[in-house]
Structures are given as C-alpha cells and as structure tokens.
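Severity: low
Component: inverse-folding endpoint
Summary: output formatting inconsistent between runs
Steps to reproduce: submit the following structure tokens with default settings.
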C-alpha cells in the first residue's frame, strides 16, 4: 500500500511529465478499440455479405493487429524515455533510503495506475470513434448492406487489457534499470546518455533481425508465394521495425553524423555543430523521437510498396502470357461472335475461355477449391504463353487438364477433381505450369466446365495487319451482338480496376489510423522532450547564443532526428520489398521494381515538417524565462 501511495503522489505531482505517456497509451488503446469494434460489427453483420464480408473481416483483423503493434511500439519507447528522464528523482529516493526493489515497485505501480486511467480513457474514445469507422466503411463500399456499429463489450475489454499489458511491459525494462541507478550517478549534472545499448538489448535486436531474415529465407525456399500474401507482407516488417528500434543506439550515431553533414550550418550559425553532437549524445531522446517516424515510414513503404509490387508483377505477367492483339467481352452467347470473328479480315486465331470452379480431391478426401478456365486446346496453344514446366497445352482434351505445380502432380498422373456441378471425375495431367500470380493456373475443356459461360475471347491478328484498322473492322462486325472490343493495351489497363481500388482501400484502412496515431505521438514526444531541455537551453543562452539561434538549433536537431527515423524506415521497407522481389523471381514472375516514392515521400515530408513545427514553438516557450532563473533548476 505504501508503494501505491508513493506512486499516486508521484503521479499527482509530476503529471505534466507523464502526460505524454498517458496520451500515447490512451490514443493507442482508442485506435485498437476502434478496429476491434469494427471487427465485431463485421462479425455481427447479417448473413449474405459473402466474400465481401469475409474480406472485410480479414482487413479489420489485420488493421487491428497493426494498430496494436504500432501503439505498443510507440508506447514502449515513450514510457522508457519517461522513466529514464527521472533518474535524478530515483537517485534522491535512493539517497533517502529506498532500496532498488522499492524503486522498481514504485515505477511499476505508477505504470499500473497510469495505464489503467489511460486504457479506460482510450476505451471511451474508441466507443465514440467506432461509428465514424462504420460510416466510412459503408460509404466507400467495403461493408455489406446492414453493416452497423456493434454494441459488443468484448472489443473494449480486449483493448483495455491490451493497453494495460502494453503499459506494464513497456515500463518493465525501464523499471529494472531505474532500480539499478546508483544515487551518485543519478545526481550527476551531465545529460550524456551512457549504457543505452546494453548486452541484452543488442542480443535481442540482433535476434529479431536474424529471425526476420530466417523467416524470409525459409519462405523463399519452401513457399515463395507466401511472401506475396497480404497477411505476410503486413506482419513481416514488424520484426525489422522492432530490431531497428532496439538497435537504434548502434545505428543512430553514424546516421546522425552523415545526415548532419547535409544540414545548412547557416540556419544555426556558430551553434550548427551542436546539432549532430546533441542528437548523438542524447540517444534515448533521439530514439524516442525517431520511433514514431520509423514506424510510419516503414509501414507505409512496406504496405504501399507491396501493393504496387504485386500489381506491377501481375500486369507484367498478364502482358507476357498472352499473344492476343484484341480481346472481346461477349454480352451474350459466344458462338455467333466466334463465327463473326472468323470472317473478319486479318484475324488469324481465336480463343474463347470461360471461368469455372474445380476442386482437387486430396488423398484424405478433403477437397481444395480453385478457380479454373475452360478453353479450346488449339486456341489455348496458339494464344496463351503459359510458363510450362512439363507437357504441352496442345495435349489438353476432355480427359485431361493443365494445372500449376503447386498441385503437386506430374505430367500423366491422375488427378481426382470435383467439377462445378458437383460431379466427380479423374483427369490426367496434360501439362504442368510454373506457379505465378495471374490467370495461369488451371485449364480444362468445356466438357469439364458444366454451365461455364464465355467471358473473354482473345484474338490474334495475322502478321503485317494494321492494328487500328483491324480493331475498327472487328467492332463493326460485332456491333450487332453488343460485345465490347478492346485492344491489347486497353484490356490490360482495364483488367482489374475494382480489385486495385479495394486493395488500396484496405491499405488505407490498415494505415490510416496508424499514421494519425504516429503523427500525434511524434508531436507529443517532441513537445515533451523539448520541455525537458529547459536548463540546457538556458545554458546556451548564458554562453552567448541568441533566442533565435537556440530555437533554430532545437528545430534543426528535431529535423535531423526525424530524418534518422525516415532512413531507418526506408531501410526496413527496402528489405521487405527486396524479399518480395526475390519471391517473384523464384516464382518466375519478375516484375519491375515498384517503389512507393509518393506515399513514402509524403509521410517522410510530413514527419520532418511536423518535427519542425513542434520543436520551434516548444523551444521558444522554454526560453520565456530569464536564462539565469531557468539554469538554476
């Protein structure tokens, strides 16, 4: 009870210094609660949403996981700095007779009380913000009809206890270090951070880095396609983000020195040399400020880059795997169109395909459903450039199929399948294809695709035929049938616009609140850390620096530290995109490097601008007192 009373007294008297930690945790819990309440609403939605509802549940679950990770990472960094900056206070407690265990218990008790209050406040904010998320999801078309806010209480319970665990976990290591502070060391006047990179922190950071590399390497060897899945490229960067955060005391000093060379010295006058020196000396402050920037840039680069990479690879694969010059989309039966197309001058080959469902029957009787296409063997061989591993698509007949290598069958082996109408049969593997990303998986003849309706007719023109003239003749010939005729470029451009839109909306859902939260956390951390430097800034004034020089010094340092976070975030995103590009190469679907310059540039510029806008007013506010008064703290 005595420990709780001391902790409560400390909170009531030192609440301004702990306000940053409180806000970080409260907003983090609110962000997690909003996502979980949205997930509960999706789970409570009336049946009938089909794949749209399943996709929404997956997106909200991913967004909830990312929100929890972001808040935990930022809160841990903020709490750690909030405890470390109180080392002189802990030194006074030690001088007054407090034992190391009592200091640790006091810090943990403060975290318990502060975490409880912040988590409760976050749950209230989450409940108030959930309807806005539901309205946004319905407004952009991501939610099925009948989607409404959920009155469920479990999301709030989950968010509350998660926030409390994050608070206690984030302060646990710092509390242990606080208990180890010696009285005389804690009362030293210098603000130089020493012993930041402990052996345990170094080993844990290197362990996380090795774990991330091992996971990516194992996936490249066993299942490279897994690196291209949304769940993987959303969670995989978290290992590297944590590793970069733990190793920041090792990585930040060289980055500070290099980036410090880019600072225009004229902005800070003779004190310009102090900018990198201050950032390198106060590594805990540097790490606390860089942490939100690192998370924001790394997640933006990883998620936006992954989306662009997969889209670019699919587009490149689609271009490479069809020899069609024109593509026809029927509005009715395909037979009259095929007859009309064969009469158009310049047309040399025609291939009609239709979507169908086909399920593989595993040896234990389990069926694995997959999308397939029915095709004419001659047309398939003439117009499709399939990535063959073995066999030939020309061997396709009513008793065989063409299948990807992931099905684990060799040419000539029997493949038990279930057709779209539920009938079962055994087909022979006529050809095996290399696994890829696009529409190159399963092909059967029309006899094994009951009820399939042709949705695409690919047309190849004879060599030397004028494409524009042939396009006009084809449109004229098919006008009575209401079919749509596109040239190759038009069809590739219009192949998947809705999918791209939904994918971007999912990315916005996952990143949106996380970016807002990291921006608020960055502003909060900058205001807090600048407020702790009153004596340091006053000493600069006593040394002869003007107010303008000091403000520019603090602003330049904040920009430099934000730039360190940007570089570390870009490194994490680059490693993630490099692993994805390697996976595409293994799958035989190499695409162009799709680097997300625009979103990463916007986030990085926003972080740097926010750093300047927060540091300058805070420094000016700290200089409002006379230097002599402020220095005699």
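Observed output (run 2 of 3):
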């Amino acid at each position: 009870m005595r420990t709780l009373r001391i902790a409560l007294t400390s909170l009531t008297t030192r609440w301004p210094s702990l306000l940053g930690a409180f806000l970080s945790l409260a907003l983090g819990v609110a962000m997690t609660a909003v996502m979980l309440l949205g997930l509960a609403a999706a789970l409570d939605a009336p049946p009938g949403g089909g794949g749209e509802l399943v996709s929404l549940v997956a997106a909200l679950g991913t967004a909830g996981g990312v929100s929890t990770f972001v808040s935990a990472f930022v809160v841990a960094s903020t709490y750690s700095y909030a405890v470390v900056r109180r080392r002189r206070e802990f030194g006074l407690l030690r001088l007054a007779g407090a034992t190391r265990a009592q200091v640790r218990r006091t810090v943990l008790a403060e975290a318990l009380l502060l975490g409880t209050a912040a988590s409760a406040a976050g749950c209230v904010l989450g409940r108030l913000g959930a309807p806005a998320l539901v309205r946004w999801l319905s407004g952009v078309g991501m939610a099925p009809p009948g989607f409404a806010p959920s009155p469920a209480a479990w999301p709030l319970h989950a968010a509350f206890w998660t926030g409390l665990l994050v608070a206690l976990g984030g302060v646990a290591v710092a509390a242990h270090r606080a208990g180890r502070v010696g009285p005389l060391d804690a009362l030293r006047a210098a603000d130089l951070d020493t012993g930041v990179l402990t052996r345990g922190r170094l080993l844990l950071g290197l362990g996380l880095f090795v774990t991330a590399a091992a996971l990516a390497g194992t996936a490249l060897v066993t299942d490279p396609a897994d690196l291209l899945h949304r769940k993987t490229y959303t969670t995989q960067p978290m290992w590297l983000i944590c590793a970069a955060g733990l190793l920041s005391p090792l990585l930040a000093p060289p980055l500070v020195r290099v980036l410090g060379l880019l600072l225009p010295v004229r902005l800070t006058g003779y004190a310009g040399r102090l900018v990198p020196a201050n950032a390198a000396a106060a590594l805990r402050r540097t790490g606390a400020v860089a942490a939100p920037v690192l998370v924001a840039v790394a997640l933006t680069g990883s998620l936006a880059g992954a989306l662009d990479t997969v889209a670019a690879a699919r587009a490149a694969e689609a271009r490479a795997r069809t020899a069609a010059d024109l593509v026809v989309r029927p509005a009715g039966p395909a037979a009259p169109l095929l007859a009309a197309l064969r009469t158009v001058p310049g047309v040399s080959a025609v291939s009609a395909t239709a979507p169908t469902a086909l399920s593989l029957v595993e040896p234990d009787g389990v069926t694995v459903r997959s999308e397939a296409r029915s095709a004419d063997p001659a047309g398939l061989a003439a117009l499709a450039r399939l990535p063959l591993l073995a066999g030939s698509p020309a061997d396709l007949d009513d008793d065989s199929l063409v299948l990807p290598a992931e099905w684990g069958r060799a040419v000539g082996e029997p493949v038990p399948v279930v057709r779209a109408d539920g009938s079962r049969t055994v087909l022979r593997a006529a050809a095996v294809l290399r696994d890829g990303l696009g529409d190159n998986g399963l092909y059967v003849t029309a006899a094994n695709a009951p009820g399939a309706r042709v949705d695409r007719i690919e047309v190849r023109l004879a060599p030397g035929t004028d494409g524009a003239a042939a396009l006009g003749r084809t449109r004229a010939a098919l006008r009575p049938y209401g079919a749509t005729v596109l040239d190759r470029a038009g069809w590739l451009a219009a192949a998947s616009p809705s999918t791209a839109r939904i994918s971007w909306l999912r990315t916005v859902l996952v990143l949106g609140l996380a970016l807002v939260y990291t921006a608020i956390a960055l502003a909060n951390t900058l205001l807090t850390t600048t407020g702790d430097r009153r004596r340091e800034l006053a000493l600069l004034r006593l040394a002869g620096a003007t107010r303008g020089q000091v403000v520019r010094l603090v602003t330049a340092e904040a920009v430099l530290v934000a730039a360190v976070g940007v570089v570390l975030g870009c490194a994490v995103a680059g490693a993630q995109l490099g692993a994805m590009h390697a996976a595409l190469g293994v799958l035989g679907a190499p695409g162009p490097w799709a680097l997300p310059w625009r979103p990463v540039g916007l986030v990085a510029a926003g972080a740097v601008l926010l750093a300047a806008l927060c540091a300058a007013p805070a420094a000016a506010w700290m200089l409002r007192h006379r230097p002599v008064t402020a220095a005699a703290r």
